[in-house]
User: What shape does this take?
Amino acid sequence: MNERSSFVLRIVAGLYLAYLGVKMIQGLIVDKPENMMFMFAMAVIFVIVGVLFIISSVKNMRSSKNAETPQEETNADYIEDTPELENKVAETAEDKADEVPEAGEDESGGEADLEAAGKETSDVDVDLDEEDR
Assistant: This one.
């Protein structure tokens, strides 16, 4: 799970805790149970914890968002400030285009290149060449 979705889940959890605390207080006012003071204290704790979850998550989300922005700008500035990289990419593409054989050219040198490299050709290769002629 990424960082942003964890902040969103914490905000939702904080909202739910605060909602439960408020609903408990509303129910306590209507019902007036015997342990009203304990239940009221628990409801207030729910509200406080929920609000703290919301506040801390929003602050952390903003700080992480601000921390990411300068890094992205730095990378963009670096790429814009290096035109040599574009020239190297263009030169590499031109070199690759020169190395590609044109239509009709044989990519492998055949038996002559193998013999020049010091490798012997097998009888099977010779037989195949004779059949093609």
